[in-house]
Amino acid sequence: MLIKRPKGTQDIIPGTIEKWHFLEEQIRKICQEYGYQEIRTPVFEATELFQRGVGETTDIVNKEMYTFLDKGQRSITLRPEGTASICRAYVENKLYAQTLPVKLYYLGPMFRYENTQAGRYRQFHQFGIEVLGVENPLVDAEVIQLLWDFLQRLGLQGLEVHINSVGCSHCRAVHREKLQTFLEDRKDKLCSDCQSRLERNPLRILDCKNKNCQALTVEAPTTLDTLCPDCQEHWESVQHYLKMGDISFKINPKLVRGLDYYQKTAFEVMAKGIGAQSAICGGGRYDGLVEEIGGPSTPGIGFAVGLERILAAMQSQKIEIECTDKTSVMVAVLGDKARQVGFQLANQLRQRGIIAFMDLMGRSLKSQMKYADRVGSRYVLILGEEELEKGIIIVRDMKLGDQKEIAKADLIEFIQNIDSSEFEI
Ligand code: AMP
Fold it and tell me: Which of 295, 316, 337 is at the close of a domain?
């Protein structure tokens, strides 16, 4: 029986991979411009890292982790997100001893055992940034600015940036009590998930997707109502800087984010045209996280963008992805001797950074020309017995349908400097 790929995973095959390369290039470019350095952490970690770093009460930890015992009986989990691993790496590699802030970015696959649907996979890819070591609200704005800039450069339209402040642990305690009091009378009407959240993590009730729960919390106290003076000042500064950066945003008091350690700023970006899973990015401040996993008290903020959803949004908005047009040639040969010379020629071209194809299937000359067209080679070098004898090679411009004879000794230089005007009559 045919073995298929696991549910919720995708093969990224030629024809699509170019889009990923383009996106990855854009990511590296913008991160460098904003002064972020790449970090790569393992795709699997000790399960405890996510239990503590994402939070025991979250759906990710409770329902969605790929957890298994390895052969040494250690509990291992495929990373469901990037922030916890980066905080661990920050502590383990003592990155805090470097000049602060530490500004990092990452790119790679994440794993969550989710109910799959369009835009929701079990293996998906995130690009994220993290800034560790600064409390200043200017950083919150810079992080959102980078995100906004990235999405603008891709040409995405109709995006909505939602922001909120969920306060610090002091204001959260006040809010929690108010919210529990408010929900106490409505408890029986909440969905079963929210009934259990009421004790463990009532804040999450505010972003429950259940319509009934949403109706019940319309009037519920929000975290913005209970911000302490410090958090209020931070919140106002973030908004001020965002306005200075010309970023239009919506204040969404119901935005609380899934992770337990978010503090103060929380944000999300939604895109149109990609169906129900419209969130393309989520982020926020997590000032308590590094300490929670055993490091020194360190403020942190970051975001993660879902790359599948970005590509889906680009596709739905018909945004063309530019591919760099490198010269590509096809060495078409006729006869055994020509094949051997052609083989060497193709290698010499590749040494000079030119993309060179050769017939590997023993095709006729006509089929080799068709193949050249299919692999996108604009120029075909034709080499048969006659050309070998004369010491020349025919260079054909497939686009203009014109050709020239070039002395074999001059060929490499000719191709290196090739320009279609050579062929125009
Ligand atoms: P989160 O880490 O849950 O805040 O997610 C950040 C971003 O990652 C989301 O806005 C999505 O774009 C993307 N994302 C999260 N979960 C999935 C998934 N299961 N499949 C595809 N993309 C996802």
Answer: 316
